[in-house]
Amino acid sequence: MSLLLTVSDARDGYDDDAALARSLARAAGWDAASVLLVAPGGPRTAGTDATGARWVRVPAPTRVADPLRTQLKAIDDRLFGVRAALAADPGRAARLKLAAEERALRTLRERVEANGVDAAESIAAADRLDALVGALAREVKALAPTLVVACGSEAFLAAVRVGARTVHVEHVADVSTDTEYGLVVRERLAELGSRSLFDMPTGRTVASWGHVLREAGVEGAPDSLPPVPAPQQAEPVGEGFADVRLGVGPAGFAGQAWAWASAARTSLGVTAEVVTVEQDVLNFPADVRPSPAEWASLDWQVTQLPRALAWTHALSESVRPLLGLLNGSVLTGDLPALRRAAVSVGVVCHGSEIRDPRLHGRLYEHAPFGDEFDDVPRLQEVADRNARILNGFAGPVFVSTPDLLDSLPHAVWLPVTVLEPDFAPGSAVLERDVPVVLHAPSSPRWKGTSAIEPVLARLVAEGLVDYRRLDAVPPAQLPALLREADVVIDHVVVGNYGVLACQALAAGRVVVGHVSDRVRRRVPLPVPIVEATPPTLEAVLRSLLADRAAARAAAAEGPGFVRALHDGRLAASVLRPWLSGAVRW
What we know:
Layout: E1 3-9, H1 16-27, E2 31-38, E3 45-48, E4 54-59, H2 67-87, H3 92-115, H4 117-143, E5 147-151, H5 153-161, E6 166-170, H6 180-192, E7 198-201, H7 206-215, E8 245-249, H8 256-268, E9 271-274, H9 292-295, H10 298-309, E10 313-317, H11 335-340, E11 344-349, H12 357-363, H13 376-391, E12 397-399, E13 412-413, E14 436-439, H14 444-447, H15 449-461, E15 466-469, H16 478-483, E16 487-489, H17 499-506, E17 510-513, H18 517-522, E18 530-531, H19 537-546, H20 548-556, H21 558-566, H22 569-580
Parallel strand pairs: 1-2, 1-5, 2-4, 5-6, 6-7, 8-9, 8-10, 10-11, 11-12, 12-13, 14-15, 14-16, 16-17, 17-18
Antiparallel strand pairs: 3-4
Helix pairs in contact: 1-7, 2-3, 4-5, 4-6, 8-22, 17-21
């Protein structure tokens, strides 16, 4: 069968064009694979995702030695030897010879330091490029693809090096000619001339990708993404699940541990339990809820250890430990014990523990990572640490929201899940003269509350809306409060959507928020959230109030969207390959 291979530098973010090309090629009956160049450190890893597509993660080569520094060090080492010989008081003839050599070495050093910088930087840039391209080219050659989609210049140079038929996509974060490295890359591209089948700028539509792939030989490539079929009913439980015992924990963020465990129980018939450390507020359902003191207590941990080691599969939230703090505050300390007990371990990331502030701030215009936030260095340190751990992790890695694929491009999207009670409809929206607008800033910074509330204050002053803010509402009460609203404003800064938005959509509310094009392209169905950012929020809300029929139409799409992607059936199908043992790491 023909193979489409996408090659890209994952350090610049998840590449949407590569994902679109793979999806369309698979719809046309082709196999699909991807090669991702990731940050240095950790081993080369490979696997198969939930769709059956192969992937390879290649750590970038470590930085090559700087030729200028190497040359200067060699001169300095020789100078040290000459000066040591002079200090030994040699004979007159030897002294004259050594003195002459010392003057020559000083002159050479000055010349190299003054005139050798440009040449040395050029050599270092060329060496770096060769190392990157070589790492990619080896993987391309090994996979022997029928067609390569090369996202970025290094990927294109690698494909050309092995003679692969190639579609070249200019990456949104491609190298700049302002740097020595960029100049070397451009020189290499100029030497090749136009060698790709197509040069395609980033950000084209799905339809244009279908045309390009057909022209490149992918017969039957469609002009639209095939929908992801949500199972209409639970599939019969097979022998592969009869003995599965799944443990999930310990964070319980937004009740997702319980929701995923419930989905696995209902759709797959597995035995599942949730362990969640007790919180001061917002405690979601759990089977085992240790207090923070118990979680840190050796006695409690020893007592609970047999329970955890009896699991067949364990899903760690946010790279946190599953056995209490017995082995430290990070999952890696628990892995030896879990693996000796033959427990298959996976990780699911929710947000800030893996979201790369540098990358997210570059990709999302309104991301809350500016200089005004003094915790950005700490968030960056945590994200970098967890990325290093997961780049070398031998197990499945999931993310709960599509934007996190920017930071973990090899991960699999495990959709957030809302449970059946969330689908109870509220009253018809926007029937009141003064509609209720609700905002629930569980974290005002991440919701963009400082941009939302001044807009709502102006609308309230004009008598246009009734604003209700929810803070620290018990989880069991939140769905009913959402159903009382006409419009729910989720957030306007992060570029993503999560559990609260899904709950409001399931209840048939008008949901307003910022869901970036990057995220919308990754979701297999149109996201019925009315788009708004800080600069556009007021105009969007006034438009909804002026055209209530259009707003009601948007609200009506919500329950069907959540049923298709977020009622737990799709999440269970994502977990199925891991829990059944069909895919191994």
